[in-house]
Amino acid sequence: MTTTPQLDELLALALGATATLPPPEETAEVHRRLVTEIRLRLPGAERAAAAAPVRSRDWYRHLKAIDAARDVLARGEEPDPRVGPMAAAVRLAELARRLRELREYPAEGEVRP
After folding, report:
1. How far lies 89's CA from each of 10, 12, 24, in Å?
2. Between residues 24 and 76, which one has the greater pLDDT?
3. Taking the model in full, what pTM does it have?
4. Distance, CA of 96 to chain centre
């Protein structure tokens, strides 16, 4: 599980990837970390949606975050480095945006202050 400073660092790295175009091995590692964090936080979002009154603003907000996360995960695994660094960087940025939406939901076993 990632701490808040580590999560902030991961998000900054992923969101800045289109500017820096990191090497494929770094892109692959960041991609795996992002996917792991999204998968850890998705159940928390699902629990929040189940607890929210149906058709309330919160319910729709939770569902939007869930649907976007599932969509980005369904697009497949990390990009092939032969495709090019920009494609991989764009994928990292998209994963980071989905994780940023899910950061309010605690990961399994995470204790929030």
Report:
1. 13, 12, 10
2. 24
3. 0.90
4. 5
